[in-house]
Amino acid sequence: MPTRTFHVIFNANAGTALATGITETALAEMFASNGLTATIDADADRPMQERIEEALAGPADTIVAAGGDGTITALCGPILGTGKSLAILPLGTVNALAKDLRIPLDTPAAVAALAEGVEQQIDVGEVNGRFFLHKVVIGTIPGLAAGREYIRTMPGVSPKLGFMRYVFRRLQRTRRIAIAIDADDKGKPRVERVQAVAVASNSYDEGFGRILARERLDGGTLTLYVLKRLTFVDFFRLASGMLLGRWHQDQALDVQSVGAVTITSHKGLLKVMFDGEVETLTTPLHFTIHPKALTVLALPPLPDTQAPADEAMRA
């Protein structure tokens, strides 16, 4: 079997990279110490698109996203159909896809894991020509996420307490939005007044501590989560239900598996949380799924009797 080669696109501004002070030199030493051949691109002054094009044109068979979920999503579309695979060094704040793939969150361990990584084909979601790997959310949640990003790099406890006050104020003032949902283009779209809607690639699991975790990444479906309301009572009930592993049947939530869905609003633009990044998209939003379209490096499957080691981290 030929030796795998890596081209690493390093985002030094990602959450964990900033917190731990990981440098280009440190990354290069980690790869070398594990006997891995890698080119490290840490040039943040160049446009991301230019850096990605250089990686795809190079000889490496595996492109490594060394950053957060935003960096990973930026690489997804360009890699599709190239024959190259995607690997992840989780250096972000949430690292959702890395957790689903059981990639260690400790950077030296994640680099070492690349040596034993196995290729896995996973689904890719698409909305209005943009690819996503986890979920797209509209409604209340993107506003909360924007507040999280504002305090992310601020030191100390005070900004975190300020963020909690911000969350409670937003919950007090939040308003439902009117949207039309046309799932699988069947019949007349249903009109809903909702607090938030999430469209996820595959579905989130239930189970103790498995908060927004996915065991299956290649089921070939989208899952529609419609949050009809979000009072303080709903917030705490839903949060505790997620922690305890019983939330799909929550009275404030509708869950539906679909092959495609279109979401229409009277607003021409909607703020969304796009794989963890807050963006603005033009409506209507047309969602589809591309089954097993992306090749990623993941750890070998665990024996059926062995539980994932990072369940506590998920909670």
TrEMBL record:
Residues 1-131 form the DAGKc domain. SMART domains: DAGKc. Keywords: ATP-binding, Kinase, Nucleotide-binding, Transferase. One of its GO terms (molecular function) is kinase activity. InterPro entries: ATP-NAD_kinase_N, Diacylglycerol_kinase_cat_dom, Lipid_Phosphate_FormReg, NAD/diacylglycerol_kinase_sf, YegS/DAGK_C. PROSITE patterns: DAGK (PS50146). Pfam families: DAGK_cat, YegS_C. This is Diacylglycerol kinase family protein. It comes from Devosia neptuniae.
